[in-house]
Write a structure and sequence with these properties.
The complex is a heterodimer of chains A (418) and B (271). Chain A has 418 residues and is mostly helical. Chain A contains 12 helices and 4 strands. Chain A is elongated and about 105 Å long. Chain A starts with 10 loop residues before the first strand and ends in a 6-residue tail after the last helix. By secondary structure, chain B is of the alpha/beta class. Chain B has helices spanning 16-30, 43-52, 62-71, 119-131, 136-139, 157-167, 178-187, 217-228, 238-243, 258-266, and strands spanning 6-11, 35-40, 57-60, 76-82, 90-95, 110-113, 141-144, 173-177, 195-200, 208-212, 249-250. In chain B, helix 1 links the parallel strand 1 (6-11) and strand 2 (35-40). The longest helix of chain B has 15 residues, at 16-30. The chains are: A mainly alpha (418), B alpha/beta (271). The interface between A and B is medium-sized, with 22 and 32 residues.
Chain lengths: 418, 271
């Protein structure tokens, strides 16, 4: 073997009994990682078969065999590391600080080193957080790429909560409890559940459409929207199951469909956040609480309670998102009010909550056709409507709208509730 | 097409050849040496086309190059070759544990070979084994896999047959290129796990870009410079270069073709 200075190995590795196809490639790749491009690695192997196969392996891996020798029952082979990087990217950074744990838990809000990017490359790919993307990958064009167009300060924590509070619509609801209702009450419950499920479809489709437009570098938002979509899928599931379990049927109302159709017409992220999360799901919070309190059976109450827990997060995101957006651009309130006005203009044919739904809610809450009980339930419904309006205005104020604007927006809100 | 555009012939041994040459075509245009490509189904037709002037440059296997150079009376020039083409080797593989000390021990046994027009999997194995003292054509029973004739072993199909035949016990040993054997192993071809390399040949050259001496010197120089300047670190070029199994192009020379020329003469393949 030549012993010129250019042939001298900077590193040596003993392959011992390792063979190609049995882990040797891994050892060689790791050893070559430590050798500078153009540097020499000496490999020692007792196997003649390995020594004979090594030149072919080295050549397709981009390295050159520069010498072979036998020594005390072993083969020594020297390969010069190729100068071309395997991955077309800068070297990986040095091992850095590790995320902090909270009582042993790794929270999504704690995984970034520094702030999320304000203006990530709109053509960036699916490079996970703090990874180094290789050049030459196909480019994307994310329509929602600027952080300030979509962000909420606590989005990481909200995604964290969404993961922690998952539930199972097949097993976490006492379905047996829903089997014993009389025909009239069950029919009313089926109508209310059908109404809820119908609305939850729109609550799923709206974030689902935005999800595919988000720059993946804003990963917390991707996780958040993914959880929102998943939550709504479960809501569709649980309310559909509750409507089916009693054997009765409900109407999917055209007025509800019209209202939801206009929700899908909105293509601006922040305006959708206002119309769906704050106004629609916010109003549904009060409706779900009412159903939980007045449900004639434990299955209905449980379904409403579990959905309510999710909707609280969605409303929280909406308020947080809009509050941040208005803080950054106070004039945005005008744009948002205009979006609500535009939607309301399409809903002039709706004069109030569907009478069929009001009747169903009343019977469900009574739960009978006894005049005294109906009167009490009707009073509860009137009280619910007042509560909804009061809470809507309170949430809008929390977003940063003036009292006047909040009242105006609440008045514009769809009679369909979502 | 401009009048100055060169025509390069290549053999379509796989659909990826189109991907490679579509990218290289734009590269050559950007490099100031516009070059269109023409695909042939076999190297014999490509060699004819170079000799007839239908194409200016052939992207030849070593076998095609030797035939072309022979038919041109030595009037060819090499404009470039890949890094992997410079130290090509042929290996003999056997089932693990059946190793041999000398290829002469294969006398009386079954030797699997790739396509008969493959330099690395048929022609050179016979030549180099003869140098080791084994006249395989006479002393062994040859199990030939003449698949994809005309492609000169480019597809690797016949070598896959060789590997499978040895693993299945239909042959005692098999000859194939070291690069294909390593590639089969990397791809996880299951039969490779049961095999090991028992012998390797001296190295020789493989493919090259060949032109006739009649092609203008300045054109050759500029074209060759453009090939050599192709950069594997250019993200827009790397995928095509990886498909062509090249990290870096070299000028190339005739030195590494002597053994194949001798082998083809011995085997009466140059008439």
């Amino acid at each position: 073997m030549s012993t010129g200075p250019e042939q001298e190995p900077s590193h040596r590795v003993d392959a011992e009994q390792l063979e190609f196809g049995g882990g040797l490639e891994v050892l060689l790749a790791a050893a070559l990682e430590r050798v500078a491009p153009g540097g020499v690695l000496e490999i020692r192997t007792p196997s003649r078969a390995v020594a004979l196969e090594l030149p072919g392996w080295a050549r397709i891996a981009g390295h050159d065999l520069i010498g072979e020798a036998a020594e005390q029952g072993a083969q020594l082979l020297r390969i010069r590391r190729g100068t071309k990087a395997r991955i077309l990217a800068p070297p990986l950074p040095e091992r850095g600080p590790r995320p902090v744990l909270r009582d042993g838990e790794l929270h999504t809000a704690d995984w970034r080193r520094g702030e999320e990017p304000a203006d990530p490359d709109p053509s960036a790919g699916f490079a996970p957080l703090h990874s180094v993307p290789e050049a030459g990958a196909p480019t994307h064009h994310w329509q929602l790429s600027r952080r300030d167009a979509v962000w909420a300060d606590d989005v990481g924590e909200l995604a964290e909560q969404a993961s922690a509070q998952q539930w199972d619509a097949s097993r976490d609801v006492p379905w047996e409890a829903a089997r014993e209702l009389d025909d009239i009450t069950e029919k009313a419950v089926a109508q209310v559940m059908t109404f809820l499920a119908q609305n939850e479809y729109a609550a799923l489709y709206v974030p689902a459409r935005f999800l595919g437009q988000i720059n993946p570098q804003l990963v917390e938002l991707v996780l958040w929207l993914g959880s929102h979509v998943h939550d709504e899928a479960r809501h569709i599931e649980v309310f559909t199951k509750r409507s089916l379990i009693g054997g009765q049927h409900g109407y999917a109302l055209a007025s509800t469909e019209l209202s939801l159709h206009t929700l899908l017409d909105e293509h601006d992220f922040t305006a959708s956040s206002l119309l769906l999360n704050v106004l629609g799901e916010g109003t549904f919070l009060d409706l779900l609480r009412f159903i939980e309190l007045h449900a004639p059976d434990a299955a209905t109450a449980t379904a409403a309670r579990l959905a309510h827990r999710d909707e609280r997060r969605h409303v929280h995101f909406g308020i947080s998102n809009i509050k941040r957006a208005i803080f950054l651009d106070p004039d945005l309130t005008l744009t948002l009010v205009a979006a609500a006005e535009a939607r309301a203009a399409k809903l002039v044919s709706l004069s109030g909550l569907s009478p069929l739904l009001v009747e169903s809610l009343t019977v469900m809450a009574a739960p009978s056709l006894q005049p005294a009980e109906l009167a009490e339930a009707a009073a509860d419904i009137r009280h619910l409507m007042a509560t909804m309006e009061g809470n809507r205005i309170r949430r809008l104020r929390a977003c940063g709208f003036t009292a006047t604007a909040a009242q105006h927006l609440s008045d514009l809100h769809t009679p369909n509730l979502m | 097409m401009s009048g100055a555009e060169l025509r390069l012939g290549a053999v379509s041994y796989h659909p990826r050849v189109v991907t490679i040459w579509e990218r290289f075509r734009t590269y050559f245009a950007d490099a100031g040496v516009p070059t269109d490509y023409v695909l042939f189904s076999n190297y014999e037709r490509l060699v004819d086309a170079v000799l007839e002037g239908t194409v200016d440059i052939g992207w030849n296997t070593n076998t095609a190059y030797v035939v072309l150079d022979h038919r041109a009376g030595g009037g060819t020039r090499i404009l470039g070759m890949r890094d992997v083409d410079r130290d090509w080797g042929t290996v003999l593989v056997m089932r693990k544990g059946e190793s041999l000390d000398s290829p002469t021990e294969l006398a009386g046994r079954v030797l699997a070979l790739g396509s008969r027009d493959s330099g690395h999997a048929a022609i050179l194995p016979l030549h180099y084994l003869a140098e080791e003292g084994l006249d395989a054509a006479e002393q062994c029973r040859l199990l030939r896999f003449d698949t994809d004739l005309g492609k000169h072993g480019d597809t690797g199909d016949s070598e896959l047959h060789v590997v499978r035949a040895v693993a299945a016990g239909e042959a005692d040993a098999g000859a194939l290129s070291d690069v294909y054997f390593s590639a089969f192993r990397a791809e996880g071809v299951p039969e490779v796990a049961d095999l090991e390399v028992v012998w390797r040949s001296p190295t020789y050259y493989h493919c090259n870009f060949t032109a006739l001496d009649s092609l203008d010197d300045e054109v050759c120089r500029r074209w060759s410079d453009a090939v050599l300047a192709m950069d594997f670190d250019d993200p827009s070029l790397r995928p095509a270069m990886e498909l062509e199994s090249v990290r870096r192009w070299y000028p190339g020379d005739r030195d590494g073709y002597a053994s194949l020329t001798a082998a083809m003469q011995e085997q009466s393949m140059l008439t």
